[in-house]
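dumping this here so i dont lose it
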C-alpha cells in the first residue's frame, strides 16, 4: 500500500491558488503573443496591399501596350495575307498566260509550279483571351 499523505487544507488551497495564478499568467502571455502575431500579420498584409497598389497600374499599362501591339500586328498580318493572295492570283494568271503561249507556239517553257499559298501561310494566330482577374472592358478599352 502506498504511504498515506495527510493533507493540510490551507496548504492545498494555497497550492491551488498558485496554480490558478500561474495558469492565468500563462493564458495572458499566450493571448498577448497571439495578438502580437496577428498585428504583425496585419502589418505584413497592409504592406503587401500597398505594394500591389503600386504594381497593379504598371501591369495594367503593360497589358494595354501588349494588347495594342497585338492588334497592330494582327492588322498588319491581315494586310500581308491579302497581298499574298493578290500576288498569288497574279502569279497564277501569269503562269496560265505562259502555258497559253507554250501551247500556241509549241515552245517548251520551264514553268515552275506554284506552291499552295495555304500551305506556306500557316495561321499562327492565337486567340486573345481575357486574363483572369483583369477587367477586360477597363483594361482593353482603347481610344
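and the seq i came up w/
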Amino acid at each position: 500500500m502506498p504511504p498515506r499523505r495527510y493533507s493540510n487544507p490551507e496548504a492545498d488551497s494555497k497550492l491551488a491558488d498558485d496554480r490558478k495564478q500561474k495558469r492565468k499568467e500563462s493564458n495572458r502571455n499566450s493571448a498577448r503573443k497571439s495578438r502580437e502575431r496577428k498585428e504583425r500579420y496585419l502589418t505584413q498584409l497592409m504592406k503587401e496591399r500597398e505594394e500591389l497598389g503600386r504594381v497593379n497600374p504598371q501591369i495594367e499599362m503593360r497589358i494595354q501596350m501588349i494588347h495594342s501591339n497585338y492588334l497592330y500586328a494582327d492588322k498588319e498580318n491581315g494586310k500581308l495575307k491579302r497581298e499574298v493572295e493578290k500576288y498569288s492570283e497574279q502569279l497564277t494568271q501569269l503562269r496560265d498566260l505562259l502555258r497559253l503561249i507554250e501551247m500556241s507556239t509549241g515552245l517548251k517553257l520551264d514553268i515552275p509550279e506554284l506552291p499552295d499559298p495555304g500551305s506556306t501561310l500557316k495561321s499562327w494566330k492565337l486567340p486573345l483571351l481575357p486574363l483572369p482577374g483583369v477587367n477586360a472592358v477597363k483594361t482593353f478599352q482603347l481610344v
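Residues 136-143 have pLDDT under 50 and may be disordered.
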